[in-house]
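User: Please fill in residues for this 432-position structure.
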């Protein structure tokens, strides 16, 4: 198996480069965050990868071939491509100032052209349908979440070429001030420029903005867009068939507290619950969950390996719900992620929830999604909603992951501070 070395300025960019150069069959062999000192190439992350089928590729450079001419050339080109793919992440913080400057230019231009109003550019189509007018598809069964292949086209608001963004940059006087202000507002809430633009395009196609914008109507319209585009599911509903639920994610996102909230809620309703922990890395993690199990009179079993995990799950054969708490992983430790994948793979019909913290930077959220694809997950669960004021990253992460939203948590109260995710709640967070 021939290996290739790639360098990048971040792990997320490096992974994207590997995927672009080696394809979906790429195997990550190692990740070194001190790549600059090791190889002398630009960047500070170095990833060694190979193809599963062993075929050669023109991208990258052999990891052991120090004599390859211009060794950093291809990796730099790969990073450039990755940055183009991730441009909505890279430029968000930098463009905020530019947006405000362009808004001032726009307002000045409109003031000069009041006597000659112009129509905003629109995409010409033979037929036009909008999300609010379309019937809402039936939700998928809870036990069978959609898990289409990565090559399948994902549900996304942004599907057409730029309209308003290019006009704002080149001819701001052609765009109504109300539309521009709304666009800037959406971007400022953390929504990616592509999604924000599609929202204002659809708004302008359905709402006459010539006489100003009714804020309440705009919020209802944007909320309907979210309602038709975002899927929710994965709420655990105890039945005769046992439900096995595993929560995993980066360190510190609140997995153990979330497990406690779920367990307490079920126990109060008379649902029989069993707790399994495979967290032997974090000091005090098992003791924390054991306190909850003793208070609720719910049994807890600890597993130190895959065989113990299977035995623990089998021991709870008669329980209606089995909740599995896992160690907080370092997403850059691919061996640890692979061990988790193998452990969870030992049990059939297990629902996998990727837990992410709402205050996490969008760049990291999208990076976590890509990294945890190695483990595989059915649902997204966002915690700590009370610790941030902007929620655009939730929407962007949803479109990146293409998995339903399951639960939202906010605060430390057990079990009060957890709720089933809903499009109405997401709209309220985004457009309050």
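Assistant: Residues filled in for all 432 positions:
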């Amino acid at each position: 198996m021939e290996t290739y070395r790639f360098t990048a300025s971040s792990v997320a960019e490096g992974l994207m480069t590997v995927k672009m150069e080696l394809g979906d069959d790429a195997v990550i062999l190692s990740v070194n965050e001190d790549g600059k000192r090791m190889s002398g190439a630009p960047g500070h992350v170095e990833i060694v990868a190979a193809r599963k089928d062993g075929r050669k590729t023109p991208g990258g450079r052999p990891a052991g071939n120090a004599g390859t001419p211009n060794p950093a050339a291809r990796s730099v080109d790969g990073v450039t491509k990755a940055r183009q793919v991730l441009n909505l992440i890279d430029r968000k913080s930098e463009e905020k100032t530019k947006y405000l400057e362009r808004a001032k230019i726009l307002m000045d231009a409109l003031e000069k052209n009041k006597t000659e109003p112009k129509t905003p550019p629109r995409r010409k189509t033979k037929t036009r349908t909008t999300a609010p007018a379309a019937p809402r598809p039936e939700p998928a069964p809870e036990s069978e979440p959609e898990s289409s292949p990565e090559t399948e086209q994902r549900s996304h608001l942004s599907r057409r070429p730029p309209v308003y963004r290019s006009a704002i940059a080149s001819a701001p006087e052609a765009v109504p001030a109300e539309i521009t202000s709304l666009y800037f507002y959406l971007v400022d809430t953390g929504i990616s420029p592509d999604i924000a633009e599609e929202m204002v395009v659809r708004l302008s196609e359905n709402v006459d903005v010539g006489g100003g914008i009714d804020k309440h109507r705009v919020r209802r319209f944007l909320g309907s867009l979210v309602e038709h585009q975002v899927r929710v599911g994965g709420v655990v509903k105890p039945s005769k068939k046992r439900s096995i639920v595993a929560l995993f994610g980066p360190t510190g996102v609140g997995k153990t507290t979330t497990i406690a909230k779920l367990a307490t809620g079920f126990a109060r309703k008379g649902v029989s619950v069993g707790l399994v922990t495979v967290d032997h890395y974090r000091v005090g993690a098992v003791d924390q969950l054991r306190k909850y199990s003793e208070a609720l009179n719910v049994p807890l079993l600890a597993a130190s390996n895959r065989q113990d995990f299977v035995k623990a799950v089998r021991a709870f054969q008669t329980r209606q719900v089995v909740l599995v708490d896992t160690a907080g992983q370092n997403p850059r430790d691919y061996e640890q992620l692979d061990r988790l994948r193998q452990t969870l793979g030992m049990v059939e019909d297990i629902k996998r929830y990727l837990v992410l913290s709402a205050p996490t930077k969008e760049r990291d959220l999208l990076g976590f999604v890509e990294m945890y694809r190695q483990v595989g997950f059915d649902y997204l669960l966002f915690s700590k909603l009370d610790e941030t004021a902007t929620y655009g990253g939730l929407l962007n992460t949803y479109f990146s992951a293409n998995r339903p939203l399951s639960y939202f948590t906010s605060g430390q109260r057990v079990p009060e501070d957890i709720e089933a995710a809903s499009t109405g709640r997401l709209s309220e967070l985004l457009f309050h």
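For context: Residues 92-112 form the longest helix (21 residues).
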